[in-house]
Amino acid sequence: MSRWNEEFFIEKGLLLTAVSSIIIITLIIVFIFKEGLPAIQSYGFINFIFGMDWAPSSGQYGVFPMIIGSLGITALSLLMAVPLGILCAIFLAEVAPARMRKILNPTIQTLAGIPSVVYGFFGLILLVPFMRIHFGGTGFSMFTASIILTIMILPIIVSVSEDAIRSIPQEYKEASLALGATHWQTIKNVIFPAAIPGVITSVILGMGRAIGETLAIIMVAGNVVQIPGSIMDPVRALTSNIAIEMGYATGIHYNALFATGIVLIFMIIILLVLANYLHYKKKVTVGGGYL
Amino acid sequence: MKLKHGLGLVLILIIATAVYSTIITEKQYERIDVAGSTSVQPVAEALAQEYMKAHPRVKITVQGGGSGLGIRSVSQDIVAIGTSSMELNDNEGGKLKEYVIGKEGIVVAVNLKNPVDVISKDDLRAIFTGNISNWKELGGPDAPINVVVREDGSGTRKTFDDLVLKKTDKVKSDAIVQISTESIKLVVEQDPNAIGYISLAHMSPNVKAVKVDGVYPSMETILGGTYELHRPFLFLTKGEAKGAVKEFLEWCLSPDGQKIVENEKIVPVAS
Q: Chain B closest CA to A283's CA: distance in Å?
């Protein structure tokens, strides 16, 4: 009796922990929709998504410039972080001597552990003046924000990609080398293609962090609601918009901030689906399983 | 099953401690919650600290969150005193009682290297709406003016906009937005072409205060009424204040309280 009971409780307990994330995300989405939909309804879906002006004091709630801002910052930082991260991961997994790895790995982990406000402060104190002096303008720009983001997502991309590359079976490498391929040819033609699903996962995780980052972006992006004419123009991200105005918002403005959250959730869902599809397309099947 | 008993015991203990401590605090302390404007927060904290020293049976907690939050939470009875660093609009004002505990100046700050010392109110309006965009037009060097403002909703911004801009004016669309007085100061300190507004209490020698219409911002000029850019610091209660809250508010407006207000570089209300 007591043994059966124990089995039952442990089983159900584990089930509960497993579905808790589903419950939490459902609750969050329901709450955000409940708070956000009134704004979209009263302001109009098209006006809200494609509106060019965000001026809560005069009742204008168009988030299009911020959608562009979020996407722009994320794309630009991925453009810099992905090649850098993947090459670094290949170096760590395949080329680096053990001693060097012992120094590099903890360094990269430390980079991942630094709080975002510290990155933001670093950006505000050092990077912004640097950009102003060398590229003109105010120094607050989409480019400045993406440099900070690049540093922030680099450790994620490096460590997850490195694990993916490292988990490629030794036989692949041995077979390739035995056929007379050089080390670089092996990396390029065998190891990296086999590791691509893991690398894509690392990029997804990095992208998630980049699009959700708020505080560091607030400090260096300039937070101007406009569609940037160049990468040197200041922008405002969707996340920043919520954080900046939440403290003051009342009434429809408050709802509009939640609606901004809805837009953000949909953007992330679309990007995740896209990335998962890529992941699925690129997976390598070996025997019964896949890597 | 042992585990279950253990868990139950822990749960009971936690609940017991929670209940016990609430009863104890209820008995020993009179609790006053204060929440609202981040600008008012430092002076409210100073007042609370001093008051609690003299009245050990009163416990005052001070939270930030913004003027909007202060107004909202006091009208919803979440806190006893809401704080605001901007005048209430007619809509909000009706149900709430206002206590002006001090006035704070708003300083227009530029970089120390900037030769411009005096800017008229009309020129300020032109700068922040984008009609003047080069320091040359104000007698400075031939360089673009980098305008730094606070976020929409900030008490400092609302006050500045109300006092300097006309109702139909829109702030220059490419003005950099910073979310605190300190970060505006930092930008102005670093960028020789920047201009921004900060509160007088946060003024420090690493940026330069501009004379507005020829008047230098200081406690004296605000008290004398010659410096125009200032705003009230408000304590708000829902309806008439009672009991410990009333005593605290009265003390804040007494000479003792006003001295602390002055120490925080906030202009005391002339009594």
A: 44
Please check whether residues B97 and B143 belong to one and the same domain.
no
Q: Which of B167, B179, B193 is the best residue to mutate to test the A interface, defined by the most A CB atoms within 10 Å of its own CB?
A: B179
ipTM: 0.76
pLDDT under 70: residue ranges of chain B: 1-4, 21-28, 90-94, 270-271
Query: What whole-number distance in Å separates Cα of residue A45 and Cα of residue A139?
Result: 34
- Domain extent for B189: 105-224
pLDDT digits (tens, 9 = 90+) for A250-282: 788 889 999 999 999 999 888 888 888 887 887
Number of folded domains that form chain B = 2
Long-range pairs of A46-51 with CB within 8 A, sequence gap ≥ 24: A48/A256, A48/A259, A49/A263
Classify residue B1: in a domain, yes or no.
Answer: no
Question: Residue A19: which pLDDT band, with cuts at 50, 70 and 90?
Answer: very high
Q: Give the CATH number, domain containing residue A115.
A: 1.10.3720.10
Which residues from B are below 8 Å from A125, CB to CB? 186
Provide, as residue numbers in chain A, all residues whose Cβ is less than 8 Å from the Cβ of B179: 218, 223, 244
Determine contact: B190 vs chain A, CB below 8 A.
yes
Give the total number of structural domains in chain A.
1
Cα distance between residue A192 and residue A90, in whole Å: 8
pLDDT higher than threshold 90 for residue A283 = no
In a domain, B62, yes or no: yes
CB B168 within 8 A of CB A71: no
Q: Give the model's pLDDT for residue B168.
A: 81
Which chain B residue shows the shortest CA-CA distance from A59?
B152
Q: Which residues of chain A make contact with B177, given a CB cutoff of 8 A?
A: 222-224, 236, 244
At A176-225, the pLDDT tens digits run 999 999 999 999 999 998 898 889 889 988 998 999 999 999 999 999 99
Domain that holds residue A154: 49-286
Q: Residue A236: is it exposed, middle or buried by C-beta count within 10 angstroms (0-12/13-18/19+)?
A: buried
Distance CA A62, CA A54 (A): 5
What's the whole-number average pLDDT of chain A?
89
